[in-house]
């Protein structure tokens, strides 16, 4: 793993596990000192996190952990609840043994991340599972929309989620795959709807005020 990738993963993990709360400032000089790398290297990592919407970079203000509003969090999940179940009948027309095996491999990878307490990886794998399912429906416009909603959901889960938000508390994805293998469209739609509603209800829509973060203690070597 490259040094940039390692730094990226450490900062993302700290965001997802709320060691860096929404709104926390990310000064390049202090991060550079903590990781023992140049500010240029830190800037590249922060730009990558900004492209993924986990970080916001403002001119003359620097970078900070993105802070999605509570309204945005609710609207994003409500949009997913409206759209994703409706794509089930279309994706079932493309469902076969190969697709089942592909998605089961994803579910296993996601489960492994949860069991290893790799919350950042679990959130990203959950998002991939959902937008890959949407893509299978064949509706490119809605699939792209779901993909964007899933990216925004990843940030929302990082800001407001709990371990239960990506774990079995909200339903194991392998349960959905069993239903899809049986070809039960209505049952799969109901499962997806309940699954997304559970994720929404698991959110804790409160944020702690930013504290004076000791980057050396958090990331220092």
TrEMBL record:
UniProt keyword annotation of Transcription regulation present: yes
InterPro entries: GntR_C, TF_FadR/GntR_C, Tscrpt_reg_HTH_GntR, WH-like_DNA-bd_sf, WH_DNA-bd_sf
Molecular functions per Gene Ontology: DNA binding; DNA-binding transcription factor activity
Pfam families to which the protein is assigned, alphabetical: FCD, GntR
Domain of life, per lineage: Bacteria
Name used for this protein in its record: GntR family transcriptional regulator
CDD domains documented for this protein: WHTH_GntR (cd07377)
UniProt keywords, alphabetically: DNA-binding, Transcription, Transcription regulation
